[in-house]
Amino acid sequence: MAQSKNEFYLRRIHSLLGIIPIGAFLIVHLLVNHQATQGAEAFNKASGFMESIPFLLVVEFLFIYIPLLYHGLFGLHIAFTAKENVGHYSLFRNWMFFCQRISGILAFIFIGMHLWQTRLQKAFFGKAVDYNMMHETLHNPLWAIFYIICVIAVVFHFSNGLWSFLVTWGILQSKKSQRVFTWVSLIVFLIISYIGVTAIIAFM
């Protein structure tokens, strides 16, 4: 019983962190990247503003890296241990749950690689995280395709996770509200995916 209770709270924390602060950071990060559609100067200005946040390293660890690490590791635990629930949820929802697990694994790998290509390059080698850094990576078509696939996977994970969050926390209780928010989450997915993919194309 104690283990089940611990699992319950761990899942709640995992669900909450996926929206706040990780989901919020995802949107801000993609909006900053989207400035690349206005040119290198616009992106560098937006990126420079984010770099000027006071106590940036502390903020990053408290609100980005630690939540990401917990959400990612516990998410992997869920991905490899959870099973579909056809009796309780529809076939569509079970497919969404399957895609949520796959996109979570891909997101975990991608975020690690992206951190290495950006923040860790700055920390270890003093490279500037600017337009040129991203252009050097994304002018390679293979990297560009990989980034597009992964960004779409990350956005899907967030959008579908938003539905799961609202169900988990008892906000979407009726079947009707859950069906309606399925369409809302689809709209969120399309809008944020557009922002992310057009940023990648701009860096190319």
TrEMBL record:
Q: What is its main location?
A: membrane
Q: Does the UniProt entry include the keyword Heme? A: yes
What molecular functions are annotated in GO for this chain?
A: metal ion binding
The record's listing under Pfam families reads:
Sdh_cyt
Localization: Membrane
Give the binding site residues for heme.
29, 71, 114, 157
- Which GO cellular component terms are attached? membrane
Membrane-spanning intervals of the chain: 12-32, 52-74, 95-116, 142-168, 180-203
NCBIfam families from the UniProt entry: sdhC_b558_fam (TIGR02046)
Can you say what this protein is called?
Succinate dehydrogenase cytochrome b558 subunit
According to its UniProt entry, this protein's organism is: Staphylococcus pasteuri_A
